[in-house]
Amino acid sequence: MALLSFENIIISGIAVAVPGNTIVNNENYSGLLGAELLYKSIESTGVIKRHVAPPGVCTSDLCKAAAEKLIIEMSVDKSSIDVLIFISQTPDYRIPATACILQESLGLSKKTASFDINLGCSGYVYGLSTAFMFANQPGINRVLLLVGDTVNHFVSAKDRSTALLFGDAGSATIIEKSYTKSNSYFSLNTDGSGFKALNIPAGGYRIPSSFDTLTPVRHDDGSIRNLEQLSLDGGEIFNFSIREVPKDISGLMEFAGIFPDEVDFIIFHQANKFMLDFISKKLKIDKSKYPLSLEEYGNTSSASIPLTIVDKLRERLKGNRKKIVLSGFGVGLSWASAIIEIENPNIPQILFYT
Amino acid sequence: MKRNDFYKRIAELFEIEEESINEETPVKIDSLSLLALIVLIDENFNKQVNAGQLKNVETIGALMNIIGRDNFEGF
Predict the structure, then answer these.
(1) Cβ burial, residue A120 (10 Å; 0-12/13-18/19+)
(2) Are A190 and A122 in contact (CB under 8 A)?
(3) ipTM, interface predicted TM-score of the complex
(4) Do A234 and B52 touch (CB under 8 A)?
(5) Using the beta-carbon criterion (under 8 Å), do B52 and A161 form an inter-chain contact?
(6) Which residues 6+ apart lie within 8 Å of A208 measured at CB?
(7) Across A88-125, where does the E strand assignment appear?
(8) Hey, which residues does A346 pair with through a beta bridge?
(9) From the candidates A51, A100, A152, A269, which is the catalytic residue?
(10) Catalytic residue (one of A121, A152, A189, A272)
(11) Bridging pattern class, strands A9-19 and A351-353
(12) Are A43 and A337 in contact (CB under 8 A)?
C-alpha cells in the first residue's frame, strides 16, 4: 500500500501556460455527432472551449514558458534547483528524456538531477509525491516539477469519444522545505488490467509504426482513427473512476486523520463534468468546494490539477492557508490522491503561449 | 427496487413513454445514456456493472438480467 506522509515540505509556486490558439465546441461538430447528441455531450462533459497546441508546439514549450515565468516571479536562483522532473505522455522525442533538453534550455546547472515520468491523469499527484521525497532530503534545495500534455497531437478529429474533450497545457511547480508546520499525505495506486481503456495501440515497440498503423479505420460507433491515435473507452473509465476515486480519497483522509469538513477545496483531474459531479455526490462534497476549469480549457490531462488551481484558486490562496485535496485518475489505469496544505503560494496568471 | 420505479427511471433516461415499457421494449445505449445508466445502477442497486456488457444490451429485459433479477421486488 503506497501511502506517504511528509512534514514541512510545501508547494511555493505554480504557473501554467496554454496555447493561445482556441477551439470552441460548437455546431461545427454536428457533422460528427449529430446536433442533438452534440449539445447533450457538451452539457455532459462540460467542455465549451479548449486551448489547442498547433503542430510543432510541444508540451515542453508550454512547461518551459511556465517555468521561466515562475522563476522570474519568485526570483528563484536557478542554481538552487537541484531536481527537474518532467511528467508527460507527449515528449519531444522518443529519445532522450525531455527533462534533459529542458535542463539545458532553462539554463539549469549540470548538477541538476533530471528525468521523465510517463503518466497522464494521475501524473501531477504522482509527480508531487516524487518531488516531496526529493525535497525531504537535506541536500536538496528546490525541485522543479514540470507536468503537462498536448493530447490533441494524438487525437483524431473524427473520433466521437475524444474529438471535443481535450485541451493542451503545461505547468511548472516549485517544491521546497517550509519553515512553518505543514503536513501532507499521498496515496498512489495502479490497476494495469484496464490499460486498454485509454490507449494508443501502435507506435511503440509492441506494435511499431508502419503504413498500416497510420491507415484510418472506421469503428462501430462511426469514429475514424488510426492505431497511433488515442482510443478511449468512456464507459470503462467512468466505472473505474466512480469505483476507485471516492474510496481512495476517503481512505487517505482516514490515514491522515482529517475530517472532510477540514478540507477547503478538492481539485479533481478535470476528466468530465458529469463524472466529477457524480464522484462529488458520492463523497457528499458541496459544488463550491470543487472548482472546474474544464469549461474553458477542456480535459487537460496531467496539467488539469495545476491549471484548475491557477485558474480558480489564484485569488483565494493569496495571503491564505488552505487544506486542499488533489485527485488524479485515468490512463494506466492509475490513480492518486493527496492532501496538502498550501499557504500564499506564488501563482502568476495563466500564460498564453504563441 | 420495484419494477415500476425502475421503469420510471428508464423512461426518463431514454426519453420513452413509461406506460409503454415492458421487458421487450428496445433500448439503444449511446455513450451518454451509458454513463447515466451506470449512475442509475450504482445509486439504486449499489452495484457496478461492466460497461462493455451494458453497451450490448438491446432490451429492457436484458438490462434487468445484467442488474440481476434478485434486485427487483414486485411492482
Answers:
(1) buried
(2) no
(3) 0.74
(4) no
(5) no
(6) A202
(7) 113-117
(8) A13
(9) A269
(10) A121
(11) parallel
(12) no
